[in-house]
Specification:
347 residues; alpha+beta; Rossmann fold; Elongation Factor Tu (Ef-tu), domain 3; 3 domains; 6-stranded antiparallel β-barrel; 46% strand; binds guanosine-5'-triphosphate; binds magnesium ion
């Protein structure tokens, strides 16, 4: 199983590409497309709410191990920049730059664009990512792209296998009531292996829930390892108790006041004490206020772009998280550059 986000700028051919790579499933501000190859399932997540919704982008990235960044053959733009900053601040992802609509360009312009991509990603986590030019009308590059996705998929499978033995955690992205079954949630096993009859709890509310049944791509399973996109029927909770990003697990940290170690984007405005920001934690997101900032052990009122600092922050609701989770701080009203910082939790 591999989870792959399809992100990139507006009208860059994301949805058309998703439709060529898989079969459409659940649809909201993120839309799922599935493809089965032998015993491997590839779940694509189209960030169709982006760029209007930053949440759609961040959720698609956080739900996947591999990102396809779509860049139209006409060239780079601010939205591609924002996607690159998001991936860099979240770190540790694999991915491919997909130069879309290659039929509207020519080989010289396409190779110039892939050089430009190399130049702007230099020094980021994405500097080694390949660029592949594709067209969904002539099918140029589609097979090459698929082969590359399969090989990255094999790498992530191995990486996820190393997480199978950890305590189970499921990130929930959709939840609803099914007549005759009850509460059904969709999501990804972030770590560990879940089993039918597991007694877990829903966080941040700490409500007990038992796994009644597990499905992946409409097939019933007895257990599901890390990295599997699952549908779960649950006992003991109702779908209305859920919110996007709630975690099913044995134990999560839950707090609304959090200390974060932050790396500010080079392209952001300074971050100041008292600033109203938007916090992304896994698939959860909420308004928050910066309570204090320290740099090099000293209290400061502002942290400049590109700097590292520690931030104490008060969120509007409880957040469920674990030590290994990455957070993002954003300014949703900044038209130019919404992403402010990538953060790790200080425990
Ligand atoms: N010529 C050509 N047109 C394409 C290709 N891929 C997509 N298009 C067209 O480009 C337009 C945008 O494609 P979409 O797939 O909707 O792009 P998107 O990024 O999902 O767009 P939004 O979600 O609306 O931002 C559509 O009219 C497509 O038919 C391609 O490879 N070649
Ligand atoms: Mg679309």
């Amino acid at each position: 199983m591999a989870n792959i986000s399809i992100i990139g700028s507006e009208k860059s051919g994301r949805t058309t590409l998703a439709g060529k790579l898989g079969k459409k499933g659940t649809e909201s501000d993120i839309t799922l497309y599935n493809f089965v190859k032998g015993d491997s399932i590839y779940a694509f997540v189209d960030s169709n709410g982006y760029p209007a919704s930053l949440k759609s982008l961040i959720n698609a990235i956080n739900l996947s191990d591999i990102a396809l960044v779509c860049i139209p053959s006409t060239g780079l733009n601010a939205q591609v920049g924002e996607c690159i900053v998001a991936l860099d601040l979240l770190g540790n992802k694999r991915g491919i730059f997909v130069i879309t609509m290659s039929d509207r360009s020519n080989p010289v312009a396409l190779s110039e664009l892939s050089e430009k991509i190399k130049a702007i990603t230099k020094g980021t986590n994405l500097e080694k990512w390949e660029s592949i030019a594709v067209s969904t009308t002539t099918f140029e590059g589609i097979e090459t792209l698929k082969e590359k996705i399969f090989s990255l998929g094999e790498e992530t499978k191995k990486e996820n296998a190393a997480l199978d033995g950890l305590p189970p955690r499921v990130m929930v992205d959709h939840f609803f009531n099914v007549t005759g079954i009850g509460c059904v949630v969709l999501g990804v096993v972030a770590q560990g292996t879940i089993k039918v009859h597991d007694s877990l709890a829903l966080f941040p509310t700490n409500r007990p829930a038992e796994i009644r049944s597990i499905q992946s791509n409409d097939v019933d399973l007895k257990s599901a390892p890390a990295g599997t996109r699952v549908g779960l029927a649950l006992k003991g909770v109702q779908s209305k108790e859920f919110d996007r990003g709630y975690m099913l697990s044995q134990k999560e940290e839950t707090a609304s006041k959090i200390n974060l170690k932050c790396r500010l984007s080079k392209f952001t405005q300074p971050l100041g004490v008292g600033d109203a920001v938007h916090l992304f934690a896994g698939l959860q997101d909420m308004p928050a206020t910066i309570s204090s900032i320290t740099m090099g052990g000293k209290d400061v009122t502002q942290a400049p772009p590109g700097s590292e600092c520690s931030v104490a922050l008060a969120a509007q609701k409880d957040i469920a998280y674990s030590k290994s989770d990455r957070f993002l701080i954003a300014q949703l009203n900044n038209p130019k550059q919404r992403l402010v910082a990538g953060c790790e939790v200080v425990v």
